Amino acid sequence: MPPVASAHGVGTKEQKSYGTFGETTFTVYSYAEVQRVVAALESGEVVLDPSWRVDTEKGARGARRDALTTCGCVVLMLAVVIAVTLLSN
């Protein structure tokens, strides 16, 4: 979403939230400007980059790559937990 918002001039501001684990910063988008971009997308006036869409070959490749990367990270984390468990015994 950030690339789409910035590409189409949607105003943003950073807000901070404080909780048990400290400070978290998140982005808030201008509602009126988001609605403007949505209307432009629906009318066909604005076209998204194919890599941002999962219904295009380029976007689907990126989604698969992201899923494989996530699976690889999970497998790596599990391997580290198992190794630490085995070595601590």
Report on this model:
The protein has 3 helices and 2 strands. It has 2 domains: 1-48, no CATH class; 56-89. It has a two-stranded antiparallel ribbon with strand order 1-2. It has 89 residues and is α+β, with helices and mostly antiparallel strands. The mean pLDDT is 86. The protein has helices at 2-7, 31-43, 57-88, and strands at residues 12-19, 22-29.
Based on the model shown, name its key terms.
89 residues; alpha+beta; 2 domains; 3 helices; 2 strands; flat
Q: Can you lay out the helices and strands and say which pair or pack?
A:
Elements: H1 2-7, E1 12-19, E2 22-29, H2 31-43, H3 57-88
Antiparallel strand pairs: 1-2
Brief account:
The protein has 89 residues and is an alpha+beta fold. Helix content is 57%, strand content 18%.
Count of individual beta strands: 2
Biggest beta-sheet profile:
2 strands, antiparallel
Task: Strand order, main sheet: write it out.
Answer: 1-2
**What does the radius of gyration come to?**
20 Å
Morphology call: flat
Question: What's the rounded overall pLDDT mean?
Answer: 86
Uncertain ranges: none
Count structural domains.
2
Structural class: alpha+beta
Helix and strand run: HEEHH
Approximate helicity band:
55-70%
Distance between the termini: 46 Å
Q: What is the percentage of strand-forming residues? A: 15-25%
